[in-house]
Amino acid sequence: MKDLDLETIALAQQGNEDANRAIIEALHRQVIATIYRFLGSRFQSEVEDIAQEVFLKIFRSIERFEPERGVKFTTWIYTFVRNHCFDVLKKRRLHTSSLSARDDSEGQISVPDPRSPAPDQSAENMELGEKIEEALALLGEDQRMVFILREYEGLDYGSISRVTGVSEGTVKSRLHRAKESLRHRLSPYMRAGA
Fold it and tell me: Which of 51, 86, 98, 162 has the highest CB neighbour count under 10 A?
């Protein structure tokens, strides 16, 4: 994710509506995608509402963002996304590794992923995608968040460390454990040539 210019952020801190709109437009897709990947398909119908809640929190606190401290604005944003996702899970008291809490109702929003295959994808690719989502849901919350921030959002270890509030070494350890777990859970599909 490309960081926003400091002028836009400063204007938003002064309450400028155009700057606020520019921030939402620049970050909306990444925030939605991160929320969806972290919370999974059982929250698919609520992702937009959750993202709106995140942006409300961001704009209520934006005056506290201090670029001179050396933290990127996007890193600061991901901290809000992470914390709000954890709050959502706590409120719902859902066990994060449950695979039975899926919502397959109609009217759900679609969260496009630039890495996802074209709509005419084969049944095998659809099945593999479901298995990857299930394997990701089985990761612990901390491992899942680190994996999403690194592999999907492309954050560096230092930024992930600031978002999660743990050392870079812990980030690397969680990422390694997450990858090993995913590799183990998905190995039958990798052997099958999927």
Answer: 51
CATH numbers and ranges of domains, the chain: 1-96 (1.10.1740.10), 120-194 (1.10.10.10)
Three state DSSP letters for the chain: CCCCCHHHHHHHHCCCHHHHHHHHHHHHHHHHHHHHHHHCHHHHHHHHHHHHHHHHHHHHHHHHCCHHHCCCHHHHHHHHHHHHHHHHHHHHCCCCCCCCCCCCCCCCCCCCCCCCCCCCCCHHHHHHHHHHHHHHHHCCHHHHHHHHHHHHCCCCHHHHHHHHCCCHHHHHHHHHHHHHHHHHHHHHHHHCCC
Average pLDDT over residues 2-19: 90
pLDDT tens sequence across 40-65: 888 989 999 999 999 999 999 999 99
User: Global pTM?
Assistant: 0.71
Q: CA-to-CA distance for 27 and 4, rounded, in angstroms?
A: 9
106 by Cβ neighbours in 10 Å (0-12 / 13-18 / 19+) ranks as exposed
Token couple for 21:
């709109």
Kindly report, residue by residue over 104-158, the tens digit of the pLDDT: 444 444 444 544 545 444 566 677 778 888 888 899 999 999 999 999 888 999 9
